[in-house]
């Protein structure tokens, strides 16, 4: 699975890792029922602590995206809620807009132009 | 003289010398050897089987013929002497093979020398065998060193279209984590271990040494099989990391700086010669299961392939990382 972390993201690391896993599941590269790599492997690849990854995975389990099974590791239960994914993407879009000095109203204008 | 032909001359001279020793020494000593000779030693260190002189003579030549045949085939089929990795592999085969053949012949002849009959042949314990294996390891190391010098022509391969590189933003860290595993191979490995434990327990009860030895062999076989039953593969800023076995140890890292391109390809065990680690250095496949493989090519043209799910994404990310590295170097 492909995971991307934003190096300038000010949010806590476990939220960022959860976001990366959520995006990977939402993109369909890991389908419901498929197993995720172990927390250890994800942590080694991302260069973060294994506990951080575990916390992120637990958050996603509480969200209903992942399922923990004893002896079978972590697998995808269902893709994340579309509205939830969009809300997070919109949050990132607003942050990006702020970096370029645009207010939310202007972003809404842009969206209206596009749709 | 060009280097490949010099390598050929060295390999030929080496083969002729070793063959000469294997032929001349037993013929010179023939009058001082019993007929038949002791040819096999039991676990107690006493000889337990004999062979006529000519059979023993042919056997030691046959032991040597195997590495020579491998080297000749490799030379004829792949023109192996042009590439350093191939020369080294052939050096190991010829060096270790020669040390093993000469070593087994030497301990056999020494044990039989000046004995009236094969039953009276000297004892050969585990020390003698350890000595032969140490000699083979040393021979292999020497052969590898001998294959080192000389030109290293890039391996000529049919051009293949590498996976298009992923576009990467500089402020993002993108990694790819995947794995492959084979239920049948895992099952075989576990079965070997279970059988080893059962044999060890049974052998312990009836105090049968042979059962314990068999249990040891089965246990080692089971561990080796388990070790290639699954692999974890990841791609990141550090390059490509392949981690073997259920415990993901040991790991092999191919740094980004040594890689040229990557692609995904379907490969089957029947195409690469079975499961496990297959092929000569320079063209290795780590075959876990049939299907998708991630194939990477290094700067000298050597290729390494590993079975892994979702290989296309891994190849795209690797090519993206390689492209990002390129302007800097």
UniProtKB/TrEMBL annotation, chain A:
Keywords: DNA-binding, Transcription, Transcription regulation. InterPro entries: Tscrpt_reg_HTH_GntR, WH-like_DNA-bd_sf, WH_DNA-bd_sf. PROSITE patterns: HTH_GNTR (PS50949). Residues 11-79 form the HTH gntR-type domain. Gene3D superfamilies: Winged helix-like DNA-binding domain superfamily/Winged helix DNA-binding domain. It comes from the Bacteria. PANTHER family: GNTR-FAMILY TRANSCRIPTIONAL REGULATOR, HTH-TYPE TRANSCRIPTIONAL REPRESSOR YTRA. This is GntR family transcriptional regulator. The lineage of its organism: Bacteria, Bacillati, Actinomycetota, Actinomycetes, Streptosporangiales.
TrEMBL record, chain B:
Signal peptide: none annotated. The chain crosses the membrane at residues 7-29, 53-78, 90-112, 124-143, 175-199, 205-228. Keywords: Membrane, Transmembrane, Transmembrane helix. This is DUF1648 domain-containing protein.
